[in-house]
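Hi W.,

Here's what went into the run:
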Amino acid sequence: MFKAEITVTLRPSILDPQGKAAHHALDELGFEGVRQVRIGKFVEMEIEAATAEEAERVAREAGDKLLANPVMEDFEVVIHELTSA
Amino acid sequence: MFKAEITVTLRPSILDPQGKAAHHALDELGFEGVRQVRIGKFVEMEIEAATAEEAERVAREAGDKLLANPVMEDFEVVIHELTSA
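Here's what came out:
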């Protein structure tokens, strides 16, 4: 069993109103030094697969077909093996 | 300048309808081997700070005060130094 961590981020050219709102809220709360805030998704999937390579293939296909918007978003995949003991 | 990556995840005991919906959609698309899907947030912050420790303190305070719901969510912080050249 593997765990895939998929981080989905807006492309740099795409405006991020949710991030802007969080940045504004941090300013209002008195935070200093915060220069930019961008908000994306963090998806954890447990995948039954024979190898880490197969789990990564499944996770990347899920990113392409469902989790990320190919026009506006990029994603990265990290695979961890879960101990089955 | 530092970049903080803050991953906000629902606690394991909290139901995740968005993750359930994504899991169901993956099943409908014919994905095999996917056992669980949980969806959280991935926040990237650029922070002007003297040291990585100070940037991490700012990022953790932002997580505590704004980005994560302390009843339902946990968060982790990773700090990267951005080259200013």
